[in-house]
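Let's practice the habit of predicting before peeking. Look at the sequence and jot down your guess about where helices and strands might fall. Then scroll down.
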Amino acid sequence: MLEELLSKYWGFSSFRPNQREIILSVINGHDSLVQLPTGGGKSICYQLPALAKKGVCLVFSPLIALMKDQVDQLKKLGISAIAIHSGLTSNELGVEMQNIVNEKYKFVYLSPERGSSQLFRTYLKQINISFFVVDEAHCVSQWGHQFRPEYLKIGELRALSSDSNIIAVTATANRDVKNDIVKYLKLKPNYQSYISSFRRSNLSYIVIEDNNNIRKLLDILSKVKGSSIVYVNTRKKASEISDLLNKNKISACYYHAGLDMKQREAIQSKWIKNKERVIVSTNAFGMGIDKPDVRLVVHFDIPSSPEAYYQEAGRAGRDGLKSHCILLANSDTKALSHQFPKIEQIKHFLNCLYNYHQVAFTSGKGINYKFDLYEFTQNFDVSFTLALNSLNIITSLGYIKNENIHFQNRVKIKVNHENLYSYQVKNQHLDSVIKMLLRTYAGLFDHYIPIQIGSLAERLNYSVGELNSALNKLSTDKIIDYIPKSSNNTITYLKSRPTNVNIDTKLYSQLKNQSEYREKYIMDYVKNTSMCREKFLLKYFEEISQENCGNCDICRSSNKKSKSSSYDKSLILKIKELTHNNKIDLKEIVSKFDTYESHEIISNVQWLLENFYLLKTNNKYTWNEKQKS
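Done guessing? Here is the structure:
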């Protein structure tokens, strides 16, 4: 049965390691703690057993964008799903909560603060729950790199649904984080733990030091073919590097949180369909993206933490084929300094934020506001870096939630079939619009359905403005509820504005120490010249490996034979292949290698000449057929 579901919905013939055991554990009602690496198939571990069990699966997820991606993917598979979050109107929320009670959805994704609301808890008692899922479960722990205080309240829901088991899923968790997950989610004593290795044997981790990173990036992209991601730390740099790549005839686009929804979706779609080879992005890109054939991930700037680097680099090679994860550095490279704000600076920032949104004292809790960080920094004369870091800290301290909300236009029919027909008879000029909606979209009487204004207008031979006017008229007449699309950076205040801001000094110190440790570790990774890079990353996650990866730049360097410091077997075999029955110059030999440094290739060519494996004539090299190899 399990294999049948796997094949029917995901098209796979067999499970990955641990997946079947995890799925059986969930089906049998055990609490489960699951740690699988990025790209390890975590979603199937709870989505498949939810299909096999009766009831509604409740999935707690930290970001609206992540929820939306998961819901969209499930719908494409023909599985009913909905995301419940702060971006919904009160009308939508009421309708969809009743739909959940009526089991019209198999999966319900929701934000943790929504789960802690009294309204949701009232409905919870009426929902037939199959089991709970806590995605990105490291957010539960103050030791985690994305601590979210509202996650701590999820465990309280066990008291309201004691028969429902929990599966906690994460890709990055050390011992302290895992202990917190068990404690705060109140996992039962007999919970099952499934911890997979962080190793990705097909990935080659490389650090390249070059004082001209632009030149080196162009060099890398000319050698390593295939779909690529280049991560940068600013929006400006994303657009600049994308332009530069295109000028050098490398197809590229850029992506960041400042683009509107339509732009982001179009860019993402082009890259996924391989219409653009390279996407240059801030860390806003990647969540929920499962493109298997990414051959190269380059970090043009130092990432913020080992967790961020592991997750971002791990978007390479999800199809199991050889891929490269390259971090560029130079003699002046420094960590992405968090310039950790002082307590007084944080208090000042939070008060400025309240003033920016005109939040009165003792009010604001649960209210969602639009937020433009660039506009804020200009209005209050705050440096962008300080503002960004302060924003992250007050998020971890539990004052706010900061997200991007991207929605399509949404419609729901508010009247029954009989009243709708009567309205159509009396309003013939709107009859064609109503009929087109009914023909194009199913479920309009039960759900809020995303609609495509452009394609509808084209089919009706309307302008977009004419169609919007018609929809607004239907909404005014209370025939439909029409919610125009939105694309906003938002802030939700999780606490009312206090008369005096008090910062939890213990938690503040803990966050500061963790930030400094992560910053130091990622710089030690860059400067490391002796330990296998994969082992270095695994050590951070408390996985002790006895084996070197054999793929990273450190391993390749240490594997050179004692006869010559530059002798490298894999290079030798490639050079032999290039020069066998062929005459080729040194420049062309060097150009045929992907991530090797030029000096490595040249030194191997020199060794081959010295040992008579290669012959040189008129600056052309050919393999010596008389030499045994």
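How did you do? Residues 505-527 form the longest helix (23 residues).
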